[in-house]
Design a protein that fits this description.
alpha/beta; seven-stranded mixed β-sheet; 30% strand; Rossmann fold; single chain; 24% helix
Length: 252
Amino acid sequence: MIHALALLLFAFAPLFAQNGIAEQYNAIYSDGAEQATFNHAPNAFLVEFAKTLKPGRALDVGMSQGRNTIYLAQQGWQVTGFDLSDAGVKLAREQAAKLQMRVTAIVADAAAYDFGEAQWDLIVFSYVPVGDLVERVERGLKPGGIVLVENFHRDTAKLRLLYGGFGDNELLQVFHAFRILHYEDVLTRQDWGAQLVDENRIVRLAAQRPKPAATGCTWESRPYTEGETACWGIIRMACRPQGWMRLGSCSH
């Protein structure tokens, strides 16, 4: 039986191809007695934020045993999840079949996985390293698509027998090209792994791939094409690519 301390050591291990990582997770997921120490409920941040979204296509990066993948499927999302651990993916498939939920669960390495081009409405990183995936995440999201991240702050390396995590405002910098919808840095209980301390510093982010800028302008519910003008009292305004700009005077 794997000791709970070992579970903590493994809980934040990168899902990128590294010697022994898949084997470590396979050992954990194959030990039914120890699986109870993991949180089988969906991530609370994901649950709350997903309420604001219209279901579409979602990708769960590092799906582990599929808790978030299956939850999203239950809410009407078309979900793909992947993980290095074939034992974890097997558990996800079995649970989805038991609940009669259709999900795509794949054994794959995040470093090599093809995020595609503009095909996801939502990409989830729940206690999974983002690493150098940001550009692929941006390409893989549809314009207006959302990436959700919850993970440890780097300071928790002093509380956990494990390094890693994000520094102050690092997530904001990592996703600087995105529209930030939500960011928080809080002291709370972690959502994943053996909880050997009462609280950890946790960071959460929701960011949106920008949509293409709309063309034209609107005034009093009427659309205007670029170059058209409108009067605002005695002021003449012109619709420009950057929005309404003063052009001159209106005669009455």
